[in-house]
């Protein structure tokens, strides 16, 4: 990699906290930063604190009514507001909800700004990736949709084509909804099938609004899909559609809840498959956008064994100094996990799996749900982007 890389982070971002027992614990972000620090990754990144997105910036995506509702919820966390998705069974209200959510949004915008204005080549916000939030409603643990706000900032500051690739196990429905009829934004999401997992959207037939046909690409994967199948689907779809779109910037969401140990979903990827996806997206940015890459976090609820290792790999790739999967997890980090949580932490930065896959060009197997899903996406989306869906 050439050019400095950036991490937008400070400890205040871990105040995004729905409380004890909620699956989206800020511990996952805290442990990620500590593990990355132990590996020396933070020494290879320019680290800056998160600015706060003001109301005008939030309202480039969200309604003023919704921003006011979030402020009220943070000041009165006992007041549920189901009309705005606040105080629901998944997105609890908590003190200062607006303030910390606005800082997460500000962090992703700062990452986008730094990349777009040429301060750095790559930038990351691992506390971000809150891709389910809608313009007027919270959803799926997400209050403000920081990837959408960052993309809108890019558009408002001169970007003509932005590609967004979402590898979270859940469909990136909020980002897709915001830009569904905007031909300047390509949204690509690989996720577990909507027939088996929240939010129940993201079928291959969701291809964009009337003014933007072909700019939403969805790859719904069967439950049980592991590294080889996931990577087969990724490489059968993502590089071709992103190349056809010719983006100036690549924005990516890296939810690691596709892991086999994640408690909220049903895919069976490993750290090794996730790392392979991060490398592929990094390389795609260098091939297509002169390296301009904005990476965010996302879901991930195996908060000790999975998230810190996955996102430390991501930050190391952003920094241009990837960590060897066989590397030992530093003793100091493992000891802290043992003392704080009474858990035996992973020993290595790998799950010991081979992240190889059979390329789509080797043939289509109609007897498998996976290949039928890939074919459905290629058949619906490729012609809209001027691509040949044949295999």
From TrEMBL:
Provide this UniProt record's keywords sorted from A to Z: Acetoin catabolism
InterPro entries tied to this protein: AcuC, HDACs, His_deacetylse_dom, His_deacetylse_dom_sf, Ureohydrolase_dom_sf
| Pathway noted in the entry | Ketone degradation; acetoin degradation
Q: Does the keyword Repeat apply?
A: no
- Report the residue ranges that make up the Histone deacetylase domain in this protein: 22-316
Q: Which Gene3D superfamilies match?
A: Histone deacetylase domain (3.40.800.20)
- BP GO terms, sorted: acetoin catabolic process; epigenetic regulation of gene expression
Asked if the Swiss-Prot or TrEMBL record annotates the protein with the keyword tRNA-binding, the reply is no
Lineage, top-rank taxon, reads Bacteria
Q: Name the Gene Ontology molecular function terms of this record.
A: histone deacetylase activity
Q: Which Pfam families match?
A: Hist_deacetyl
Spell out the family assignment given in the record's similarity comment. Answer: Belongs to the histone deacetylase family.
Write the protein's name.
Answer: Acetoin utilization protein AcuC
Originating organism: Kribbella sindirgiensis
């Amino acid at each position: 990699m050439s050019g400095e890389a950036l991490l937008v982070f400070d400890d205040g971002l871990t105040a995004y906290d729905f409380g004890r027992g909620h699956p989206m614990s800020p511990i996952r972000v805290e442990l990620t930063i500590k593990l990355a620090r132990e590996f020396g990754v933070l020494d290879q990144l320019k680290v800056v604190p998160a600015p706060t997105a003001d109301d005008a910036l939030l309202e480039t995506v969200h309604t003023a009514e919704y921003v006011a509702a979030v402020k009220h919820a943070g000041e009165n966390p006992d007041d549920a507001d189901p009309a705005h998705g606040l105080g629901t069974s998944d997105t609890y209200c908590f003190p200062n909800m607006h303030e910390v959510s606005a800082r997460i949004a500000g962090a992703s915008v700062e990452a986008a700004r730094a990349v777009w204005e040429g301060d750095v080549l790559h930038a990351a916000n691992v506390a971000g990736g809150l891709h389910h939030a809608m313009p007027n409603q919270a959803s799926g643990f997400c209050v403000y949709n920081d990837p959408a706000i960052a993309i809108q900032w890019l558009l408002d500051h001169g970007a003509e084509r932005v590609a967004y690739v979402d590898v979270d196990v859940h469909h990136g429905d909020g980002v897709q909804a915001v830009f569904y009829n905007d031909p300047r934004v390509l949204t690509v999401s690989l996720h577990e099938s909507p027939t088996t997992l929240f939010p129940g959207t993201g079928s291959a037939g969701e291809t964009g609004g009337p003014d933007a046909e072909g700019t939403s690409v969805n790859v719904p994967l069967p439950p049980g899909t592991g590294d080889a199948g996931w990577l087969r689907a990724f490489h059968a779809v993502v590089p071709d559609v992103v190349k056809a779109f010719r983006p100036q910037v690549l924005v990516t969401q890296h939810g690691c809840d596709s892991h086999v140990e994640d408690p909220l979903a049903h895919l069976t990827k490993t750290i090794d498959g996730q790392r392979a996806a991060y490398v592929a997206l990094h390389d795609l940015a260098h091939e297509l956008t002169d390296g301009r890459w904005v990476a965010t976090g996302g879901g991930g609820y195996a908060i000790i064994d999975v998230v810190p290792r996955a996102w430390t790999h991501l930050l190391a790739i952003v920094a241009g100094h990837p960590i060897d999967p066989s590397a030992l997890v530093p003793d100091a980090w493992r000891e802290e996990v043992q003392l704080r949580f009474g858990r035996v932490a992973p020993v290595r930065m790998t799950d010991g799996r081979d992240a190889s896959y059979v390329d789509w060009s080797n043939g289509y197997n109609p007897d498998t749900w996976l290949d039928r899903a890939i074919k459905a996406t290629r058949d619906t989306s490729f012609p809209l982007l001027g691509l040949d869906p044949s295999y």
